[in-house]
Design a protein that fits this description.
Layout lengths: L10 E6 L2 H12 L2 E6 L2 E5 L6 E6 L21 E5 L2 H11 L2 E2 L8 E5 L5 E6 L3
Parallel strand pairs: 1-4, 5-8
Antiparallel strand pairs: 2-3, 3-4, 6-7, 7-8
C-alpha cells in the first residue's frame, strides 16, 4: 500500500491495557525494536521500513478467550510466527511472560497467550 505521502508502510494495530509493556514483550520475542513510544501508543518495528505492530491503549480492555467461547470476547486476530525449534521458542516466550494455552488444536504448532491475553501461535518451520 502506498501512503499519500509517497512512502510505503504496513502493519497492524493491537489493543492493549498497557501498550508499552506489550510492545516490550513482542520486541523481545521477535528481536525487533521499539520504534516509537508516546502515552497510549507504542510501535514495534522489524526495521525502519516495517513491518510494524502498533499497540494502542484500550480503556475497558477485555482479553479474548481461547478457545473462543460463546458469550465471551473472541480473539479478533492472532499472530503466527514460524520457528526452527518449537520447544526452545515456546520456552523463550514463556520466559518473556507468555503462557501456554491449555487447548492445543494441532501438532507442530503451539498456541500461547501474550501478557495482555492475546493468543498467538508458534509454528514449527519444517522446511
Amino acid at each position: 500500500m502506498r501512503s499519500r505521502t509517497g512512502g510505503m508502510w504496513w502493519g497492524t494495530s493491537i489493543e492493549a491495557p498497557d501498550p508499552s509493556a506489550l510492545a516490550r514483550f513482542y520486541a523481545d520475542l521477535l528481536g525487533w525494536h521499539i520504534g516509537h513510544e508516546e502515552p497510549g501508543t507504542a510501535v514495534v518495528a522489524a526495521s525502519p521500513q516495517g513491518p510494524f505492530f502498533v499497540f494502542q491503549q484500550a480503556d475497558g480492555y477485555q482479553a479474548p478467550v481461547w478457545p473462543p467461547t460463546e458469550g465471551e470476547q473472541r480473539p479478533m486476530m492472532h499472530f503466527d510466527f514460524q520457528v526452527g525449534d518449537l520447544d526452545s521458542a515456546v520456552a523463550e516466550a514463556v520466559d518473556l511472560g507468555a503462557t501456554v494455552a491449555e487447548f492445543q488444536p494441532q501438532e507442530n504448532v503451539c498456541v500461547l497467550v501474550d501478557p495482555a491475553g492475546h493468543p498467538f501461535c508458534l509454528c514449527l518451520d519444517e522446511g
